[in-house]
């Protein structure tokens, strides 16, 4: 075999004419429907949290580039995307510094400390959410007065239609499942994701919700079990993360399916409403093994030859 030079770059590896900046721009656009609906329901509170998170994430990355790499620049929009997702998975009543701290943790501790874009082995936004829960769980608890209507918190269970189209309950990004789906369809049309991991995840959640669901999450109804905004945030934006999930088709399906199983276990058995984010983090640790077991022999041979 002739000796050849191979150009090796970091993830994400894009097999098309588009570059990383174009891909990140598409992901940013896909988040706009959820951002818009979140602002519609939560008004100025959502705007302030978004600004605090994005500013913190961008400043953290710029300072890191300046100090460590000797340049004052942003390589891509990844810090903005991560900061926006962090805000979307937080409730509107948290203090401004909370999403800012989450953004700094995600950008620096999860991404930059491990080499920058594409080098993180776990999802940055999910990690930031887990850190916030572990450190300031009390700040995430909804106050006695509803943040939107001012009415007392009740046991009212919204209709499935309301959960799908729009309902001011939970985190900012959970306000409308339809808005999240629109973002996901955009990513599919643009070829940013292929849908394998997303479909596998949603089918798995529905299946295991129907099998082991109980009052508080499923009440035996697989449809209502799917009507949770965090499930769609995870199913569209986290199980398709290029750096921390498998890149081959079979690997994506297995990864999504196992994330769905863990999501239901954490939500039902663990009574954890944020179980979807923990499911992603756990499976991120198994992603290299899944990739290794499912990658084709031809690709393995090429890797070994290199």
Condensed summary:
The protein has helices at 20-69, 78-88, 97-111, 124-140, 160-165, 177-189, 196-212, 222-226, 229-238, 249-269, 275-294, 297-305.
Descriptive overview:
This protein is mainly alpha-helical. It contains 12 helices and no strands. The model is unreliable at 1-16, 147-153, 215-220 and 301-306 (pLDDT under 50).
Rg computed from alpha carbons, rounded to a whole number of angstroms: 20 Å
3D shape: globular
Structural class: mainly alpha
Beta-strand content bin: under 5%
The topology string of helices and strands comes to HHHHHHHHHHHH
Averaging pLDDT over every residue, what do you get? 82
Helicity range of the residues? 55-70%
**Biggest sheet, open or closed, and with what strands and sense?**
none
Q: Count of helical segments?
A: 12
* Number of beta-strand segments: 0
Distance between the termini: 11 Å
Low-confidence stretches: 1-16, 147-153, 215-220, 301-306
Q: How would you describe this structure in keywords?
A:
single chain, 306 residues, mainly alpha, globular, disordered C terminus
Topology of this structure?
Elements (H helix, E strand, L loop, with lengths): L19 H50 L8 H11 L8 H15 L12 H17 L19 H6 L11 H13 L6 H17 L9 H5 L2 H10 L10 H21 L5 H20 L2 H9 L1
Helix pairs in contact: 1-2, 1-3, 1-6, 2-3, 2-4, 3-4, 4-11, 6-9, 7-9, 7-10, 10-11
């Amino acid at each position: 075999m002739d000796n050849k030079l191979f150009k090796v770059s970091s993830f994400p590896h894009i097999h098309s004419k588009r570059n990383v900046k174009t891909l990140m721009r598409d992901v940013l656009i896909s988040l706009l429907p959820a951002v818009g609906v979140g602002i519609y329901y939560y008004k100025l509170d959502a705007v302030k949290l978004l600004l605090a998170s994005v500013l913190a994430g961008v400043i953290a990355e710029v300072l890191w580039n300046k100090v460590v790499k000797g340049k004052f620049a942003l390589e891509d929009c990844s810090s903005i995307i991560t900061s926006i997702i962090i805000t979307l998975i937080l409730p509107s009543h948290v203090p401004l510094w909370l999403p800012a701290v989450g953004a700094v943790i995600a950008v620096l501790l999860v991404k930059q400390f491990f080499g920058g874009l594409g080098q993180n082995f776990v999802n940055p936004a999910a990690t930031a959410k887990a850190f916030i829960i572990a450190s300031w769980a009390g700040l995430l608890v909804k106050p006695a007065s509803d943040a939107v209507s001012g009415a007392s918190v009740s046991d009212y269970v919204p209709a499935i239609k309301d959960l799908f189209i729009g309902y001011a309950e939970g985190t900012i990004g959970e306000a409308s499942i339809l808005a999240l789906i629109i973002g996901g369809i955009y990513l599919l049309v643009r070829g940013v994701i292929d849908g394998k991991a997303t479909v596998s995840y949603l089918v798995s959640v529905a299946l295991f919700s129907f099998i082991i669901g109980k009052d508080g999450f499923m009440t035996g109804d697989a449809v209502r079990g799917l009507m949770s905004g965090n499930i769609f945030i995870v199913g569209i934006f986290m199980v398709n993360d290029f750096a921390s999930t498998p890149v081959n088709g079979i690997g994506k399906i297995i990864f999504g399916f196992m994330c769905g199983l863990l999501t239901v276990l954490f939500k039902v058995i663990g009574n954890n409403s944020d179980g979807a984010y923990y499911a992603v983090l756990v499976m991120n640790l198994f992603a290299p093994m899944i990739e290794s077991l499912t990658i084709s022999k031809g690709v393995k041979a090429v890797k070994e030859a290199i």
